[in-house]
Amino acid sequence: MKLSADKRQEAPGATLTDLVAQARRTVLISLSGRSGQLAAVRTMLSDLRARAQAGPGRITVRVLGSASALRELPAWAGAADLAELRVTGRPLAETLVVDVAEALLHAPGDSTGGLLVRDRAVVRVLTSLFMGAWEASLHWPDYLLLDAYLATDTARGVLARLYAGSTDAVAARELGLSLRTYRRHVARILESLEVSSRFSGGTRAAELQLFDTL
């Protein structure tokens, strides 16, 4: 999306933490994995944590990023009373949206403070793009459980055969499992991926780059 000159504002002094400090309702953040952004997000989460402990007025905070980026955040970041974290395998533009009123964009290689957007129509579009990616992502706690589960050879074998489109009977025989046990593993994987069909499970697993570990 290209912003016209009258709908954007260079913001060398506007930082992620500055904007979040002014938030009253919602904070949406997509992580690019850039070290500078991750450091700023860690500081922001610490500030929000202190703010929440100081009194009422909870803000809805949503953070979307790759598994590697989310692992760089403190373990308490995903606490239910602070922020909701979700993981995606899709490449993300580095974006912050506050109260559907302001947005801060950071292009790859940009050494400035980023681009501050205050045009409400543009900010609404950025919010919609974020929420589209958000709805297609996976809850971070579910991802961590699935990641731990896939540490076993059996679970990785089941996932690989789902990806290959093997029939249950063939896959179970190859893995030395009963058909019932194999299907129980499949059900667990699909539940963790928050999908109901095997095709959707394969698609979601590919998006999350889970097959890269097989």
Task: Write up what this structure looks like.
- The chain has helices at 16-21, 35-54, 67-70, 120-135, 140-149, 153-164, 168-175, 179-192, 198-207; strands at 9-10, 26-30, 60-65, 84-87, 94-98, 102-106, 115-117, 138-139.
- It is of the alpha+beta class and 214 residues long.
- The protein has two domains: 5-136, 2-Layer Sandwich (Endonuclease, Chain A), CATH 3.30.870; 140-213, Arc Repressor Mutant, subunit A (Orthogonal Bundle), CATH 1.10.10.10.
- Strands 1-7-6-5-2-3-4-8 form an eight-stranded mixed beta sheet.
- Helix 6 packs across helix 8 (179-192) and helix 7 packs across helix 8.
- The radius of gyration is 20 Å and the shape is elongated.
- It starts with 8 loop residues before the first strand and ends in a 7-residue tail after the last helix.
